[in-house]
Amino acid sequence: SVSDVVLSALPLPFCNSPTMIVMVGLPARGKTYISKKLTRYLNWIGVPTKMFNVGQYRREAVKIYKNFEFFKPDNEEAMRIRKACAAAALKDVAAYFSKEQGQVAVFDATNTTRERRTVILSYAKERGYKVFFVESICDDPEIIAENIKQVKFGSPDYVDRNVDEAMEDFVQRIDCYRASYMPIDDEKDRKLSYIKIFDVGSRYLVNRVQDHIQSRIVYYLMNIHVTPRSIYLSRHGESELNLSGRIGGDSGLSPRGQKYANALAAFIHGQNIRELKVWTSHMKRTIQTAEALGVQYEQWKALNEIDAGVCEELTYEEIQQNLPQEFALRDQDKYRYRYPKGESYEDLVHRLEPVIMELERQENVLVICHQAVFRCLLAYFLDKPADELPYLRCPLHTVLKLTPIAYGCKVESFFLNIEAVNTHRERPVNVDVNRNPEDALQTVPDHI
Amino acid sequence: MMRGCSSRTKIAQNQDRAVCMTNCPTLIVTVGLPARGKTYISKKLTRYLNWIGVPTREFNVGQYRRECVKIYKSFEFFRPDNEEGLKIRRQCASAALNDVRQYLTEEGGQVAVFDATNTTRERRETIIQFAEQNGFKVFFVESVCEDPDVIQENIVQVKLGSPDYTNCNTEEAVEDFMKRIKCYENSYETLDEVLDRDLSYIKIMDVGQRYLVNRVLDHIQSRIVYYLMNIHITPRSIYLCRHGESELNVNGRIGGDSGLTPRGKEFGKKLSQFILEQGISDLKVWTSQMKRTIQTAEALNVPYEQWKVLNEIDAGVCEEMMYEEIQDHYPLEFALRDQDKYRYRYPKGESYEDLVQRLEPVIMELERQENVLVVCHQAVMRCLLAYFLDKTAEELPYLKCPLHTVLKLTPVAYGCKVESISLNVDAVDTHRERPENVNIHRTTQDALQTVPPHL
């Protein structure tokens, strides 16, 4: 409907058929890593996506994992259970699409035989789902060993095993699949839509991309990497407008803000980061902060703070006085609410997407940005949903260091010991348009 | 995104944002038999990169050959045992590479597209060494296709009109060209997954059914791959038009979010008729999120998608002003804009350059789609048009995009056919030419010299 389209910043075809992304590959090839990351990315850009890990279903069916023998191809009992788990997962996929308005389902399993893939294809065809395969092929023993260390040792399957036992069992588990592994065949499967990822992204083979979402998925997959690195997120130093409790604008740093810039420089130097890239917005306060670092930095207009339109440079008290209804509407749906002549958080996510894509490509980066922008970026890395995003805490004078690890992101928070105003306004209890000013301003932080 | 310092760029607040998408220049090298779309890809890629602000130029070795050997006799020139021919062709390739070096090192070029068959490993090795000596990154784009229908169509679309065949009839030309292809076939060494595993390349198979991508090194290569994977050659047309005349238009005011005038609504109706008459299968309709485009699309009675990025350029503090008022309140800004309309950013607003950046996803999606009608705004339409018609940044802000006129763009050969269809509903003129006097101390009269009449 037209109203749905108005709300979505990205014109993704919500009325088109749902898509199943089907992973393919031996164990420890990064399928779950890719599945989780892709799911997180798609949800962040506004495409309802859910991951279905068949291993999870198996762990629910078979409470205790004994050893690799479960996966032996001649273990009939186990085969029956595994097939049933795959079927249960497919059923849940169907329910997700039909009852939960899902758009994309990521079916995370080895799917290493043609037979299994044919089952999935038939299932999808019957229901009108598009299918896109993502196969990960890797024979580098070091990469595989590292995978196993990072994610398998911590798996529920190996909770009672020491590291060497776990490694040995897992290697034999992989062997169980190897004999029957039939990679997607470029000849026989030429009618299928797929991407083959070789050696963690050194090479890709892409076949028959059908539509916009598959094209975006391919682009994303081709931009992510697993090289260890850290992303540092920080807001600009405290600004003059921050001090007076005003939102938006383009003011310079307060004296404390300048102190922060210097402290940030010292912190960064202390971190001894290899080849750090520094990004700012086009606004004075981030640029002034970066200047103190004494290194080259790049300015992105896309990193500018959310445009508060008619509310630019107002205090919350003034907004309540002049536009009480708008103020309430914003509290009702802070993610989607768009300031008159301004932007919404949803718009912000859309304009930050190229920043995220480039962050994925890069290695060590320090992003000096703004409160709302910071929240959007953080939500991407920490997989926060739209209703939490606008309330994430991103205080001034604090650096967040994000380091990808296993399937997620380690977060370290560094407050650089320079006082600053609090700019975080919690959602008030009363969001009714007829509320009194006291209720509206209940959660406004202190300012001059 | 604006980069820090580059010796080749002026350090100015409004400086071209994409000047330094990569730290060293890139040499894109096409690979493939004749009639595989190399020149089509080269030209399109060059046009796209220039539009997004990456100075790019293509170097077609065939051109150099035509300059050297004034008259093309026959395919025999290309026979592998034709020593004289080989010598000339090698010289032409060298001359082209020399020009590449000059463009990338002395003329501020960032990307050079080296368009030739480059079908032997030996030739490619020469190019790689050349690039290494000069500090250029190399990215190969190979087009592989064995579908005889596609090849035939290629030949018909672009070879028959080539200078090489001006004096031949169709059959002779096709026959000669087929023999020309044969000359290359025996020595063709395709990019090999094993032998060439250290090279950066994309292999495009069967006009985009399949791609093999190896070792993408940096941002620009990633963008190039994404672009190449989104373009297609299925025949289609793109219709561009502005919203119907709006209330603010009639009053000579820029920007804002007003509704249509009665004439504007009339245009909506006429547009609906026009679209029906065109008999387009599966037409997608896109609008911005501003009232005037939405109201225009409503008249079409078909589903449409709203893109925020199609919104008109944000004129910041000048929103809803008449030019006379801008001159009155901001005479300096008004003059600065006339001095560099592409890069000038309205205070608290946008520049054309910003607009191009936010329109890039629209262009990418337009490339993916087939028949599309885009109902947008003057500055937006200028940016889109500049992309399709390869207009420079200087020309872009002055492209004529009158109200109540539909532009039908149909890709043909290496470019775009443009048909301009006025739907015969009167409207104000909103086109302001660059005045002669752009000096910041100019008189009001000089400043307002080119303002079109309004209420």
TrEMBL record, chain A:
Keywords: ATP-binding, Hydrolase, Kinase, Multifunctional enzyme, Nucleotide-binding, Phosphoprotein, Transferase
Cellular component GO terms held in the UniProt record: 6-phosphofructo-2-kinase/fructose-2,6-biphosphatase complex
GO biological processes: fructose 2,6-bisphosphate metabolic process; fructose metabolic process
Family matches, as Pfam families: 6PF2K, His_Phos_1
Binding of substrate, residues: R235, H236, G237, E238, S239, E240, L241, N242, R285
Domain of life: Eukaryota
SUPFAM superfamilies: P-loop containing nucleoside triphosphate hydrolases (SSF52540), Phosphoglycerate mutase-like (SSF53254)
CDD domains: HP_PGM_like
Location of the 6-phosphofructo-2-kinase domain: 16-228
Gene Ontology MF terms in the entry: 6-phosphofructo-2-kinase activity; ATP binding; fructose-2,6-bisphosphate 2-phosphatase activity
Signal sequence, start to end: none
SMART domains to which the protein is assigned, alphabetical: PGAM
PROSITE patterns on file: PG_MUTASE (PS00175)
Family: In the C-terminal section; belongs to the phosphoglycerate mutase family.
Subunit structure: Homodimer.
Physiological role: Synthesis and degradation of fructose 2,6-bisphosphate.
Protein name, UniProt field: 6-phosphofructo-2-kinase/fructose-2,6-biphosphatase 1
Gene name per UniProt: pfkfb1
From TrEMBL, chain B:
Keywords attached to this entry: ATP-binding, Hydrolase, Kinase, Multifunctional enzyme, Nucleotide-binding, Phosphoprotein, Transferase
Residues annotated as the enzyme's active site: H243 (tele-phosphohistidine intermediate), E312 (proton donor/acceptor)
InterPro entries on file: 6Pfruct_kin, 6Phosfructo_kin, His_Pase_superF_clade-1, His_PPase_superfam, P-loop_NTPase, PG/BPGM_mutase_AS
SUPFAM superfamilies reported in the protein's UniProt record: P-loop containing nucleoside triphosphate hydrolases, Phosphoglycerate mutase-like
Molecular function as annotated in GO: 6-phosphofructo-2-kinase activity; ATP binding; fructose-2,6-bisphosphate 2-phosphatase activity
Biological process annotations from GO: fructose 2,6-bisphosphate metabolic process; fructose metabolic process
Amino acids binding substrate: R242, H243, G244, E245, S246, E247, L248, N249, R292
Domain of life: Eukaryota
Keyword Transferase assigned: yes
6-phosphofructo-2-kinase domain location: 20-235
Gene Ontology CC annotations of this record: cytosol
Family to which the UniProt record says this protein belongs: In the C-terminal section; belongs to the phosphoglycerate mutase family.
The protein, known as: 6-phosphofructo-2-kinase/fructose-2,6-biphosphatase 4a
Organism: Sander lucioperca (Pike-perch)
